[in-house]
Specification:
The chain has 202 residues and is mainly α. The protein has helices spanning 15-24, 28-50, 53-69, 80-98, 126-145, 148-159, 164-171, 175-193. Helix 6 crosses helix 8. The protein is elongated and about 55 Å long.
């Protein structure tokens, strides 16, 4: 049975919009392409929030199922990826409240997104590569220890590179609240990293 997407409001004519319209017309291949374009970033966000690979995999599946079923609600007033991330945040929050939170190894947070802005140089000396790895581990550990709302805004802005406007739409918060929360989260992260400050000194 064809899903009732045809009554939805049209969105702007972009490659992404054309994929959405294909899906609304009953072409599931269009949604497969949308999923392929967004899957890794959605999974990484779920992984940062849930801190468990299996739970993040389940949450990611649920995100795309909910998005497919609710595509008629997408009005094009934000990017499709922004809408997906909003769904991912909500689903991850639901999953987190339903499961017992237990510590997990930091190795499970080896996502495609890096919390460190340093580029990898093929000319690194072994000591420089080790220092970079230690800094990365320190940042991951510090992020892991932050409250969920602080970790979330840092992941969205500093790791995944969303603009303030996108984060405000994802979290359904005023932009001023997003900016102040990001400032507080960065301050909290700096405090967590104070114990290993020597790792970040030249």
């Amino acid at each position: 049975m064809r899903p009732p997407f045809l009554s939805a409001a049209p969105v702007a004519s972009t490659p992404e919009a054309r994929l959405i319209e294909r899906c609304r017309a009953g072409d599931t291949g269009g949604f497969d392409e949308l999923m392929a374009q967004n899957q890794n970033r959605v999974f990484n966000l779920c992984l940062w929030l849930l801190r468990d690979h299996e739970a993040a995999t389940d949450a990611t599946q649920e995100v795309f199922i909910r998005a497919f079923r609710g595509l008629h609600n997408f009005r094009g007033d934000c990017a499709f990826s922004t809408w997906l991330h909003r769904i991912a945040v909500n689903i991850s929050s639901d999953h987190a409240t339903r499961r017992q939170r237990t510590p997990v190894p930091l190795s499970t947070l080896e996502t495609d997104d890096s919390p460190l802005p340093e580029p990898v140089s093929h000319g690194d000396e072994p000591g420089e590569a080790l220092a970079r790895r230690e800094r990365r581990q320190a940042v991951r550990a510090a992020l892991e220890s932050l409250p969920d709302h602080h970790r979330l805004v840092l992941v969205l802005f500093d790791i995944q590179g969303h603009a303030y406007e996108d984060i405000a739409q994802i979290l359904e918060l005023p932009m001023g609240t997003v900016k102040s929360r990001l400032n507080r989260a960065r301050s909290a992260l700096r405090e967590k990293l104070e114990a290993c400050r020597e790792l970040f000194e030249d």
